[in-house]
Amino acid sequence: MAMSSILNADDIKKALDAFAVADSFDHKKFFELVGLKSKSSDDVKKVFTVLDADNSGFIEEEELKFVLKGFAKDGRDLTDKETKEFLQAADKDGDGKIGVDEFAALVKE
């Protein structure tokens, strides 16, 4: 499933452009700009499924680094610092990965 079938392509581009500079990523602002914050929980789960590249049921740190590419092929990689901050913000149970419920909670913050 393509991210553009869930979210507006212009919103995706606007959100990616806003965080084009390394170490500028802010997940709260990104989810708002990309239009995910206002989507239904079903749509948020669909986005999670797209980002879970290995279909493990979790977004691991390695997948998180490439999260912006999940929204568009030309998205940049997150820096190690951004990746760790994003993981820390979402990983409420401390298992080192993000489950679908943790992702949904993070989006709706």
Tell me what the structure shows.
The protein has a two-stranded antiparallel ribbon. The protein has one domain (7-108): Orthogonal Bundle (Recoverin, domain 1). The mean pLDDT is 96. The chain starts with 8 loop residues before the first helix and ends with a helix. The chain has helices at residues 9-18, 27-33, 41-51, 61-65, 67-71, 80-90, 100-108; strands spanning 58-60, 97-99. The relative contact order is 0.17. The protein contains seven helices and two strands, in the order H-H-H-E-H-H-H-E-H. Helices cover 53% and strands 6% of the residues. The protein has 109 residues and is mainly α. The longest helix has 11 residues, at 41-51. Residues 39-74, 78-109 form the EF-hand domain. Keywords: Calcium, Metal-binding, Muscle protein, Repeat. Belongs to the parvalbumin family. One of its GO terms (molecular function) is calcium ion binding. InterPro entries: EF-hand-dom_pair (IPR011992), EF_Hand_1_Ca_BS (IPR018247), EF_hand_dom (IPR002048), Parvalbumin (IPR008080).
How would the blueprint of this fold be written?
Layout: H1 9-18, H2 27-33, H3 41-51, E1 58-60, H4 61-65, H5 67-71, H6 80-90, E2 97-99, H7 100-108
Antiparallel strand pairs: 1-2
Short description:
The chain has 109 residues and is mainly alpha-helical. Helix content is 53%, strand content 6%.
Key descriptive features of the protein:
109 residues; mainly alpha; Recoverin, domain 1; two-stranded antiparallel sheet; 7 helices; 2 strands; 53% helix; 6% strand
Under the CATH scheme, the architecture is Orthogonal Bundle
Distance between the termini: 25 Å
Count of the separate structural domains:
1
Number of strands: 2
| Overall pLDDT metric | 96
Q: How many DSSP H or I helices?
A: 7
Spatial order of strands in the largest sheet: 1-2
Low-confidence residue ranges:
none
Instruction: State which percent range the strand residues make up.
Output: 5-15%
| CATH third-tier fold name | Recoverin, domain 1
N-to-C series of helices and strands: HHHEHHHEH
Give me the Rg, rounded. 12 Å
**Residue share in helix:** 40-55%
GO cellular component, one term: cytoplasm
Binding site for Ca(2+) 1: 52, 54, 56, 58, 63
InterPro entries: EF-hand-dom_pair, EF_Hand_1_Ca_BS, EF_hand_dom, Parvalbumin
Keywords: Calcium, Metal-binding, Muscle protein, Repeat
